Amino acid sequence: MTASSTNQTTRGPSSEDVRALATAVDEHRLGRLINDLAAFGARDDGGVNRQALTKDDFRGRRFLIDLARGYGATAHQDTIGNLFFRVEGSDPHALPVVTGSHADSQPTGGKLDGAYGVCAAIEVLAALRDSGVSHRRPVEAVIWTNEEGCRFPPGSMGASAFTDPGLLAGFLGTADKDGITVEEELSAVVADFSDVPSRPLGAPLAAFVEAHIEQGPILEAVGIPVGVVRGIQGTRWFEVETTGVAAHAGSTPKGARDDALRKATAIASDAYRLFAAGDDNLRLTIGRMNVAPGSINVIPERVSFSVDLRHPETATLESAESTLRSIVASQDGATIARVMEMPPTPFDEVIQRTIADAARLLGIPAVPIDSGAFHDSLHLAGHAPTGMVFVPSRGGLSHNPNEYTDLTDLATGTRVLAATVLALAND
Ligand SMILES: [Zn+2]
C-alpha cells in the first residue's frame, strides 16, 4: 500500500505528461482531418453520404490507413472490416487501450457523427508521437464497420461481430436494396487492402473509449464542452393493435360504430399523458401507424402502431411498460406485444472516473450525461471496460448535413480523450 501523501498514485502518467500530451493535440490538424475525411462521399450541401462498404467508405479508409501509418502506427483489419491502427507501448504483451468510432454515415449525414471519434482517435496517435510521452500499453485507434445500418441492417455490425463473432455468418449474407451482400463488398476489402494484415475477431482489450458528438441539446444548453457518458438508456419497442368492424362511413349511426382508429387514438392520447407526467428522462414516441382498410369512407377495422419507450433505468421502463399495458387493456380487443428490448447499458465506473479526472486535471469543465442514441460502445461495454466522451452538438442536430460542433470544442474533447487514453495505458 502506498502511504497517504500528495503523491499517492505510484502508477499512471505524471500530470506533466498528461499536459504535454493534451498540448500536443493540434486543433487545426484535427479540423483539417475532419474536412479531409468529409471529402469522401461529400454532398453538395456540405453534408456527407458515406454509407458502409461503399467506394467512398473504402477510399476514406485508404486515406486513414496511409495517414495513421505516417504517425508510426501499424494497420490491421478483421473479417468484418474493422480497421485498427496500433502504436506500441513499453510492454508489447499488455492488452491495448482502444479508442475510435465509425466512419460510415447516413445518406443525409454530417461531417461529425462517427467521423469525429475516428479523427479524434487518430489525433491522439499523432499527439502521442509529437509529445513523446511514454505509455506501457499499446494504444489503438479503431474504425468500426457499418454502425449506421442504413445500407446493411442491423447497425453496429462491426462492433457486434467483434464482440460476438457468432454473428458474422448471419451478417455476411445481408444484402442492400440492389442485392449486393456484405460478403461481396468485404471481398473487395481483401483485394484493396492486401497490404493490411488480418487479425481475429474478439481480441481482448484493456479498455475502450469512444469520443462522439452528443447528437442532443444538453451540453450546448448548459454551456459545457465535455460530457462524461454514464451509459446508454434502455429501449423497448412495442406493437399495439386495435380492431373494429369495417362499415360505411355515412350510413352507420353513432351507436353502431366499432372504430379501430378511435380506440387507437384513445390509447395514444393516454400514452402521451403518461409521457407528460413521467420524469424528464422518459421518452415515448409513436412513429408509425397503419390504418386498414385505409379508405376515406370506411370505418377502420384494424389499426397497428409502434411505441418506442426509452429511459436510463430499468425500474422506470418497467413501470412505464405496465402503465402502457393497462392503457391498452382498457380498450376492447386491443393487444400489445413487446418486439424489442435493449436494457440500459451503464458504462464502466473506473472509465467514467478516469475521463472526469482527465478533464479536471486539464481544467476543462465536464458533466455527467446519458446517451440518448445507440453507439458502438453499447456492444463494447459487454467486452471490455468502456466509456464515452461527448462534445456539444449545435441545436442537438445530427443525421443532418448541418450537424455542427465548434472546432474548439472538438479539440477540447480530443484533449480529454487523449488524457484518458494515456491514463488507461499506464494503469
Ligand atoms: Zn455515430
Walk me through this protein's architecture.
- The chain is of the alpha/beta class.
- It has two domains: 15-232 and 345-425, Aminopeptidase, CATH 3.40.630; 234-342, Alpha-Beta Plaits (2-Layer Sandwich), CATH 3.30.70.360.
- Helices cover 36% and strands 20% of the residues.
- The chain has helices at residues 15-24, 27-38, 55-70, 115-131, 157-163, 168-172, 182-192, 218-222, 260-277, 314-329, 349-361, 376-380, 407-425; strands at residues 74-77, 83-87, 97-102, 139-144, 207-213, 226-232, 234-243, 283-285, 289-292, 302-311, 335-342, 345-346, 366-371, 386-391.
- The chain binds zinc ion.
- Zinc ion binds next to loops.
Helix content: 25-40%
Shape: elongated
* Beta-strand share of residues: 15-25%
Uncertain runs are: 1-10
Assign the CATH class of the largest domain: Alpha Beta
The chain-level structural class is: alpha/beta
**CATH fold annotation of the largest domain:** Aminopeptidase
Number of domains: 2
**What oligomeric state best describes the polypeptide chains here?**
single chain
| CA-atom Rg in angstroms | 24 Å
Counted by DSSP, the helix tally is: 13
CATH architectural arrangement of the largest domain? 3-Layer(aba) Sandwich
Profile the largest sheet: 9 strands, mixed
Number of strands: 14
Descriptive keywords:
20% strand; elongated; 13 helices; Alpha-Beta Plaits; binds zinc ion; 14 strands
SSE topology sketch:
Elements: H1 15-24, H2 27-38, H3 55-70, E1 74-77, E2 83-87, E3 97-102, H4 115-131, E4 139-144, H5 157-163, H6 168-172, H7 182-192, E5 207-213, H8 218-222, E6 226-232, E7 234-243, H9 260-277, E8 283-285, E9 289-292, E10 302-311, H10 314-329, E11 335-342, E12 345-346, H11 349-361, E13 366-371, H12 376-380, E14 386-391, H13 407-425
Helix pairs in contact: 1-4, 1-13, 2-4, 2-13, 4-13, 9-10, 11-13
Bound molecules: zinc ion (ZN).
Zinc ion is lined by residues 102, 113-114, 147, 212, 375.
